[in-house]
Specification:
Layout: E1 11-14, E2 21-24, H1 51-63
Antiparallel strand pairs: 1-2
C-alpha cells in the first residue's frame, strides 16, 4: 500500500514566472536555502520560482519601498 502522506524528496517544476524547469527539494536541502534572502513560500497552490526569478523578485522587493 502506498503512503499517501509521503512527500517526494525532490520534484521537477516549471517556474510560473518564466517557464524555466528546475528541481525543488522541499524535504531536504534545496538550492533556495543557499540564497542570501528569504521570501515567503508561495500561497494558494502556486509553485516556487526558479533561481533567476527568485533573485529578481528579491531585488525588486529590496529596492521598492512599497513592498
Amino acid at each position: 500500500m502506498t503512503n499517501r502522506l509521503e512527500i517526494r524528496s525532490s520534484r521537477r517544476l516549471a517556474c510560473p514566472a518564466c517557464g524555466t524547469p528546475f528541481t525543488c527539494s522541499p524535504t531536504g536541502p534545496c538550492w533556495c536555502a543557499e540564497e542570501a534572502f528569504r521570501l515567503a513560500m508561495p500561497a494558494g497552490g502556486e509553485e516556487c520560482l526558479c533561481r533567476d526569478c527568485l533573485r529578481k523578485m528579491a531585488e525588486q522587493i529590496s529596492s521598492d519601498p512599497v513592498f
